[in-house]
Amino acid sequence: MLAVMILYCDVSKFRTIDQADYPPRQRTLIIPTSKPLAMPSDMQQILFATEGIKYIREVILMFREVPNATTALLDMLLHCCYCNDTFTLSVMMMIHGQVSSAPTNELKHILILLLELLMMEDPLQGKRLKLAVEGNNNNGLLEIIRKCTSMDSRRSYQCIKFLVHLSNKCSMAKEYLMTISVRWQWAVNWLKKKMSEHYWTPQNVSNESSTGRSFQRTMSAQDTLAEATALLDELNTRDDDGEHIENDEEEEYVEGDSNTKMEVNGSSEGSEVNGNEDSSESSKTLVQDDVGDLDDIDT
Known about the structure:
By secondary structure, this protein is mainly alpha-helical. It has twelve helices and no strands. It has helices spanning 2-7, 41-48, 52-65, 71-81, 85-101, 108-119, 125-133, 141-148, 153-169, 171-179, 185-197, 219-298.
């Protein structure tokens, strides 16, 4: 109920960054009124004061414990995170804690929340992406994947699958992941190795809903590996195309420079030839004049 009330309230005065040219976020659960309601002071204390972190923690836990009742909570969190750096950081840190420690069969709706948060377009989107993947002090999803590969491989797999799914849904995320591909290519290689080490599991076994901690070879995992590999291949193709373009430009430059030199040399040689011809003609004229002078003297 509180989440729905918050959605009707104006939170723009709590924003920490200007909206700039980004479109306003549309609340999905309610029909916005012509003028948002002013937020009561006690509600402000619950959300944006020092004690607000407690409310955020309870909301995030609801995504694990009562996932079917989180539609309003999701809409409310996005509503408050929009252009709000402080609130965003609190939510992201709580999500990170859950992804790191919650049972893997309870991560699905936590990751849905994270996906929606990272896809939200505002001036903070790039910062949220970096915070989710790399974290503060290198404690993001990549670090979770690395730490869990041995003892909690199912958690590592879910994080890899999330990153692949995110890149398919969000172009900014895809570009960002491609710029740091050297930092997660090892994770794709790890998944490829895990797939080769395991036999196919029954169709009713899932790495998302089962309570075990060990990775299972499933069709979904095979699809995730294929998509991750395709993403890396696309990056390699871009790099190769870029190198070809640079090489072609260098060859054109060298060829053009050589032609210029040939033209210059040709002009110089022509000038020298013409110069020699002119000198010969001048010499002949001088000789004839000298002969004429000698004739005059004899006469």
